[in-house]
Structure formats: structure tokens, C-alpha cells
Specification:
homoheptamer, alpha+beta, Alpha-Beta Plaits, 4-stranded antiparallel sheet, 2 helices, globular
Chain lengths: 88, 88, 88, 88, 88, 88, 88
């Protein structure tokens, strides 16, 4: 199957949101096979994270909805990989 | 099959174009098997991206047409890999 | 199976706790398949360690309990990887 | 089969020559299995490229003829790999 | 089998102890499958070494006993990897 | 079979000797399976090259004879790998 | 079989000793499967080399004897790897 196979996004996560819960929620969105939340920097109120999601036909709308519900803030989209196989 | 197997291009993408939609459109051009849109720099009105497309007998004209239709601007061709297998 | 597949955490370990015992205890928590305790810096009373735990459906509560019982102090969560396979 | 298995050359390509056409033409010379044209620098009238050609018993004379016909200028030969298998 | 699968330690080895004999002795402790003694620095009376031991259910007490018997001095434990497989 | 399996040498090649011909000649010496001539620097009259030859029971005398016949000058031997398999 | 599986040593080789002969002689010591002589620096009377020997149950005494007979001078032992498999 095709569609989005990999998403890499920069996200600010408020300190009171457990990282493992956010990662688990993202891993339950449609098509997601693996989610990596990597903390880049811990600031006073938030943690800056780079989140990588891989799978098949990822549902970006559902992913954004998880950010919205948990209070995490999508800062930028770094990378979008599509098609039948991952390249780059 | 031969023809173009890998294209790497530098593109300026206006901020209002969703990266995932551009990536998906490129992945539907003839011969494309994988597309990676990597954002290098976010500027005021555009995002500078390096786009890698791999497949078999890629249709460069169709790829340019996707850029044209979405308003993305092809800045330069970085790499063109042709033949029966990818080298370099 | 899914759940948490990889945890990377920063921990301060008091000097009187043998590293091998802490590593062994962590490897016996539910779901853990491999544990790596890497000492980053030896300070006067504690050693700063980066601990990586991989497995299937890791039990973060049990892991924290091991830190609590041994007197090790969880400083920060660096990375949480979830889903059917490890990415990132 | 033996003969030349890999050639790496530095070439100046006039700006009006499409890179994809040059790459495709090179991939059709005898023995060529893969061609990579990597643009190193874009200058006012030309683009400096490193071209890698792999295959079996490559025809260097035919390759030079492609450069001659397209107006590309062979600057230097960086690497020539010969024999039954690629080394180095 | 589980237990300790990899140990990395810093050791000071007196100059009169042959490195190969120390390495061989360590490789004969219970569970050891491979031992690497890497000399980092040669000082006036001792050589500073990083020793890596891999195997299954390594016997740290027996390893320390080898250091004790040969006159080598365990400076610090750098890394302890446990469980069913090596991670990190 | 054993003997010399890999030779790496520094050679000065006069500018009038085609690199591909030198590489081909070396690939025809006894035991040679692969030859890589990598140009490191182009000087006024010569090109400084690092040449790697791999095979089985390489004939160093014959290789030197090729240099002698073509006018290439062997500057130094960088590496000689012998035995049943390549190490290092 | 176990014993020493990898030795890395620093050796000074007088300029009049052909590197290929030294490498071949080392490859004929008991247990040796591969020998790599890498020249690090060429000085006025000697060449400084890093020599890596891999095999099974290497005979360090025989290796030292080769150095002695050829006039090469063992400067230091960098690494000794023992056991059933190579680690580190």
C-alpha cells in the first residue's frame, strides 16, 4: 500500500504530558507501525521533541488530533516520505 | 527497466502548500516508487526543500508539472541517476 | 505485540549501587529483552548514566519502581519508541 | 566479464544541457549499468558535475563521445576501477 | 540465557603483565565468549586499558578475581548490558 | 589460496599515460581480481594516485613491472594484506 | 577453537625489509588467517606500521620471532582479542 510512509515533525510537549503516553497514543493512529519520540531539549514549560512516525498510509489528520488533544504543539513538518517504499 | 531511477532536486515550496500533499502528488507520477520531501530551511514565505524521488523510468516532465500546478518552484537539479541500477 | 519497545532515560546512580545489579534488576522487569547501562560521568557521590531498555510492551511503572527501590534517580526521559517495530 | 567496471570523472556541463538527458545518454553507452550525475556547483555558464558510471567493460571512448556531442567538457578522470570485481 | 551479556571496564595494567595472558585468562571465566583488551595509553608503570567482555551470564566476581590475581586494577565500570539480547 | 590478497601503493603517473590503460594493465597481472586507481592530486607533469589491487596471491613483481613499462613511479607501499582472508 | 583471535601491534620496520615479505612471513605463523601491515609513517631509517593479525589460537611467540628474525622492532601491543569470537 502507498500513501504517507514516514513523517518527521518538530513538536513542543508541555512538561506535564508523559512522553510515553503521547508516544503510545500516536502509535495507535491508523497505519502507524512505529513511533519514536526523541527529546531534543528540556525547557522551563515544554520539551522540544522530534517525532518520527513510520507505517503505511499514515493518517496525518489523526496525528494532528492527538497533538491537539494532549496539548502538544506541532511546530513544523521536517520530512514527509510517500509511496510504495521509503527513500531518502 | 531503465530510464531515470533517482532524481534529487532543490525546490522552494510556498508556506501555504501542505508538504504531505505535495509529497503524495509526486508519489503518484508515473514510475515513482518513493518520494522524500525534506525541509531544509523555513523562510518567511517559502520552505526550502530537498526532494528525492526514486523509481523506474521516472517522468521528469510530470514531476515538473506537479511543481507547476502546486506553485512550488524548482530551483536546481542536484542529481540524476539512470540505468538498470542505482549507483553513486 | 506493541506498547513501548524502547526507552532511553538519564539516571543518577549513587556510587554505592553496583551497576551490574541495577542492570540485572531492570532486565527482569516485564517485557524487557535487553538493558544497557552506560556510565557517562562519574561524580563525587553519583554516576550519571544513560540507560536503554528494549523489549515488548515495556512496563515503565515497574522500571521506575526499580529506580526507586535502588535509590537511583530518574532525571529525564530521552526517548520513547512505541508500536509494532522500532523506528528512529 | 572484466574491463573497466567503474569510472568517476569531473565534467563541466553547459547550463543549457538538461542533466537528465546527459545522464540517460551515458546510460545507453555499451556496458553501462548505472550512471549518476551529481551537480557539485552551479556557475554562471556551466555546472560542475561528478559523474560515476558503473557496469561491465565500459566503453570510455563512447562515453567521451557523448560528452563531445552534448558539449560537456571532461575535466579530469578521478577514478578507474577494473577487473572482475569492484574494489576500493 | 540471560544475565550479564557485555561488560566494559577501565583497568590499569602494570607494565610487567603481558596483555595477551590477561586477555586469555579473562576469556576463560565462566560465560565469556569474547574478550577485547584495548590499550588506550601507555604510562610509566601501567597501561590504561578498556576491556570489553561479551558472553552469556558473565561472572563479574570471577572477572574481578582475575584482575586481583594478575595485579590489574579495576578503575571503573563503563557499561553493563543485560538480558536476552545486547542493546545499546 | 593465500599469498598477498591486497596491495595499496602510492604511485606518480605521468600525465600522458591514460589512467584507464594503466588500470586495465594492472588488472591483467596474475591473481588480480580488482584494481582501483584513485587520483589524489593532479600536478604539472604527473598525477599522484593511490592504487588498490585485490586478488589472490598477487604478483608484486609483475605489478612493479607494469609501473616500470608504463613509466609510472612507485612512491611507497601503504598496505600489504596477506593470508587466507582480508583483515584490517 | 579459542585462544588469541586478533592481535594489533605497533612495529618499526627497517627500510630495507620489504613489507610484502614481512606480511607473508607473518601469515605463515600457526593459526594466522589474515595479516594486514599498514604503514603509518615513513621515517629516515624505519617505517612505523600498525600490524593486525587475525586467526585462531594465534602464536604470539612465533609472531615475535618473525619480528626478531627480520629485524622489525615490536614497539607496543595495542589490542589483544581472545575467546570463541571477536568482540570490541
Amino acid at each position: 500500500m502507498s500513501g504517507i510512509k514516514r513523517l518527521v515533525v518538530d513538536v513542543l510537549i508541555p512538561n506535564n504530558i508523559p512522553i510515553d503516553e503521547l508516544s503510545l497514543k500516536l502509535s495507535k493512529t491508523k497505519g502507524a507501525e512505529g513511533v519514536d519520540v526523541l527529546i531534543l531539549e528540556v525547557e522551563r514549560k515544554v520539551e522540544a521533541a522530534k517525532i518520527t512516525i513510520e507505517g503505511d498510509d499514515l493518517d496525518f489528520a489523526a496525528i494532528k488530533e492527538v497533538f491537539h488533544q494532549t496539548g502538544a504543539s506541532l511546530q513544523s513538518v521536517d520530512r514527509v516520505t510517500c509511496g510504495k517504499r521509503i527513500v531518502g
